[in-house]
Design a protein that fits this description.
By secondary structure, the chain is of the alpha+beta class. 39% of the residues lie in helices and 18% in strands. GO terms for molecular function: ligand-gated sodium channel activity. InterPro entries: ENaC, ENaC_CS.
């Protein structure tokens, strides 16, 4: 493009040069506009900051926003402010740790609990006599069979006894499981024979119930013991349980124990007229005095159960159960499966034993139900489902875990363990294996928890492989035991009764009385130690102590740097436009 000037001098300018000049002017305008916007934003933020510092309720912040305050003083107050934030954060972290790790405390309840609000303990009685010879001198004893068995195992690893009937052989194979199993060797072979139903064989060997349970008294009413006791399969063989829930109420429908529960007792039929008892909910409101599980109204021997137990010298088999004879007694909650070998009271013959019961019960407040089981360290009944049991208790869970572990290690379970109908039962060649499995399970649990605790040194919140935490509501019966001599022969001589020993030759008798020691007891209660309310209150106290901070302080901060900042920016833009 050529342009002639008025002076007559030609001035030439290309299109590109014109474009460059125009673009340069546009860039300058855009840059200036952006700089103005940044300047307005900064000025608006600084203005809002100073306003916030002048008006906030947080301690020390106003000194940071004063323009005329010397720089060294503002640095000092900034340092103090940061130290306060550090101290505040440290204490709040400690409060948060306490809230997450120990939210629940077990303390004594505000009121005492009467004994009629809980069931009388379930009583499981096991005789140390496991087999009674029907024809003395004509049947082979366990001692004879075991002696022959040991000799032939060492010689040829083959056991083929002579003159032993098939029934005697079945009984011997069964007694190997319930007699002294500690002497069983690890490499013991399987004895030839068909698979046994150990419950049927044990039932066949049982002593006559009415001879060993001579008489009973419940709540000052004498009666036949058969009305109160039912057969229970335990690791000690078949025992008898009073006031325990039926197997149909404890086990699931597909288990062996459910299908061998037997007929209900007369006292158990009472419960059908009322809602069922559970440990969490207790007895239904309006339940009558006579209910099931049975309960008593007061303490003392007259409000308990009294048993006269009898055994016979000629029927004692020391080779099976060792030198200590008599009975074993276990007190447990009605919904617990009895495990007699773990904890029991020995009832020797020729003694009168008094057991005073002191219940120990832990309940829970409704406030902790919302916590995770790991945090509260207990399970509600619906939170932990068991494979074999309808009712969750810590004891039932541990028994199920042992059964599953034994099945994994040995390929079978012990005859007394909970099992489905298709689970194999261990033969005599697996006795050493299932005895050792219980020890291995305990070691595994210990090693696992130890490994998980290696990092923090704290076992709280660590979940074991069995995952058998206590039930949130639990009931344990502690005992105080006293005993004295009970000389049956001297008593009969003093009364001139000579017929009794002729009718029951070799009789050895003991008496057992079980009752509550006191009519009221103090329960323990799981309740919130540190809930959300306490946590927020603690945080508020810490914030207030260090900084004077509150919820309104947070609202102030949000207000100044949102609504107030927007107002200041809008005002500054209008000022610049003018």
């Amino acid at each position: 493009m050529f342009v002639r000037s008025k002076s007559g001098i030609d001035t030439s300018m290309t299109m590109s040069e014109c474009d460059l000049e125009g673009n340069s002017a546009g860039i300058d305008l855009s840059t200036k506009k952006k700089k103005r916007e940044v300047s307005v934003t900064c000025e608006g933020f600084i203005t809002t900051y100073h306003e916030y510092c002048e008006n906030t309720s947080i301690h020390g912040v106003q000194y940071l926003g004063e323009r005329e305050r010397p720089k060294r003083e503002r640095i000092f107050w900034l340092f103090v402010f940061l130290v306060s934030i550090y101290g505040c954060s440290t204490l709040i972290l400690s409060a948060y740790t306490k809230w997450t790790e120990t939210p629940v405390i077990v303390s004594f309840a505000e009121k005492s609990t009467p004994v009629w609000s809980i069931p009388f303990p379930a009583v499981t009685v096991c005789s140390e006599t496991k087999r009674v010879l029907k024809q003395k001198g004509k049947e082979t004893t366990y001692a004879d069979l075991y002696s022959q068995f040991s000799e032939e195992m060492r010689a040829s690893r083959l056991f083929k006894p002579q003159n032993v009937s098939a029934l005697e052989m079945e009984e011997f194979r069964t007694l190997l499981h319930v007699c002294n199993t500690q002497i069983i060797e690890e490499d013991m072979p399987l004895i030839a024979g068909d698979d046994l139903d150990y419950f049927d064989v044990l039932e066949r060997m049982l002593p006559q119930f009415e001879r060993y349970f001579f008489y009973c008294r419940w709540l000052s009413r004498f009666g036949e013991c058969e009305k109160f006791f039912r057969k229970t399969l335990t690791e000690e063989g078949i025992c008898y349980t009073f006031n325990g829930l039926r197997a149909t109420e404890i086990y699931r429908e597909d288990t062996y124990q459910y299908r061998h529960s037997g007929e209900p007792l007369e006292m158990e039929n009472i419960s059908s007229r009322h809602p069922p008892w559970t440990l969490e909910s207790g007895y239904a409101h309006g339940s009558e005095v006579e209910t099931f599980p049975a309960r008593v109204l007061s303490a003392g021997a007259r409000s308990g159960i009294f048993l006269a137990l009898q055994s016979f010298k000629q029927e004692v088999d020391y080779a099976c159960r060792g030198p200590v004879q008599g009975f074993k007694v276990l007190l447990h909650a009605p919904d617990d499966v009895p495990q007699v070998s773990k904890q029991f009271v020995r009832i020797p013959m020729g003694k009168e034993v008094l057991i005073a019961v002191k219940p120990s019960m832990i309940t829970m407040s409704s406030g902790i139900a919302e916590y995770h089981p790991i945090r509260r360290q207990c399970f509600l009944s619906h939170e932990r489902s068991l494979r074999f049991f309808k009712v969750y208790t810590e004891s039932n869970c541990q028994l199920e875990c042992l059964a599953n572990f034994t099945l994994t290690k040995c390929g079978c379970v012990k005859f007394s363990m909970p099992r489905n109908m298709d689970m194999p039962v261990c033969g005599e060649d697996k006795i050493h294996c299932y005895d050792r499995a219980e020890r291995q399970l305990l070691v595994r649990e210990f090693e696992r928890v130890k490994a998980l605790n290696a990092g923090n040194g704290d076992s709280r919140g660590v979940e074991s492989a069995c995952n058998c935490m206590p039930a949130c509501t639990s009931l344990v019966y502690n005992t105080e035991i006293s005993q004295a001599n009970f000389d049956l022969e001297e008593m009969l001589l003093a009364e001139g009764d000579t017929d009794f020993l002729q009718e029951y030759p070799g009789s050895q008798m003991s008496r057992l009385s079980i009752y509550f020691k006191q009519s009221q007891f103090i329960t323990s209660k799981r309740s919130e130690l540190y809930g959300m309310t306490e946590f927020l209150a603690n945080c508020g106290g810490i914030f207030g102590l260090f900084m004077g901070f509150s919820i309104l302080s947070m609202v102030e901060m949000i207000y100044h740097f949102t609504l107030r900042l927007f107002t200041n920016l809008k005002r500054l833009v209008k000022v610049q436009q003018k």
